[in-house]
């Protein structure tokens, strides 16, 4: 039975071969540069895909929440890092998990450091997140007073272990000057390493974003790489130059429910609840919520003439179709949609269907809820 015969409603497909190639490519790059790859698992959020990653020497992983960290516990990871400014309301939950698992968290202020030092009953590592220009979160690179205060509070507890500095240069998503941003990031982490390494000889520095990690070859003395989206990639990454569209490892299979020949539009069952609402906008102002691919027994093919999802609502999606697609499509057909943002699409869908017809787990899936 073909995997296509199982699909009656929007279904997120995963191409294992492409996923493995993406994992291997990044693992090889990290090894080539003498860095440890600690991927951010907010993209895949899967036990099975985690097992694929381990085959390429990946032994540690990063989570976006304590919920995801809990889901990943018991899966053989050497350490799980929660890369989000720690929420002090979850200290009890952290203690429960840390009783049986090596965990680390992210600290961005002295108040959180003090509460962790006062309330931890288990040993937990922490990174100080640094802001070197992104502006979303983290201690500003020049704010040594806050860094010192966090370290002073942590020293009051033998349960809270300083591991190093974490920097997410997320502004690589918004500028073509990735090399300039990475030079700034490398210099920031190098400066902190020089300043604090005598006191903390095992101090680590980690940088993590897919656009930079995918294209850069000079990481300086950074110890660890922590990208996430590279596992699947997506249209946004392709537009940024991080990958080719052929490297995108997931697509949403959607049924065709209506065809408007006059407007050259195709109505699909597939909307914001399946893809999220991330969008790309071209030079003419046209919105693109995903691009059409043709599903085959071995995956999907990218047509030479582009058709794209011009609008979405909750369950509806409207495709602006090419002439060749209009000539061939029929109501009841299945089309594939390459997502703009694979992390959000996977989170919306909560599970994957492999090309050999197997369901693959996701943290947000029904079996976990």
Automatic annotation (TrEMBL):
The keyword Disulfide bond does not apply. SMART domains: D-ser_dehydrat (SM01119). InterPro entries: Ala_racemase_N, D-amino_acid_metab_enzyme, D-ser_dehydrat-like_dom, D-ser_dehydrat-like_sf, PLP-binding_barrel. Gene3D superfamilies: Alanine racemase, D-serine dehydratase-like domain. The keyword Transferase applies. It comes from the Bacteria. Residues 249-356 form the D-serine dehydratase-like domain. GO terms for biological process: D-serine catabolic process. Keywords: Glycosyltransferase, Lyase, Transferase. GO terms for molecular function: D-serine ammonia-lyase activity; glycosyltransferase activity. Belongs to the DSD1 family. This is Amidophosphoribosyltransferase. It comes from Algoriphagus lacus.
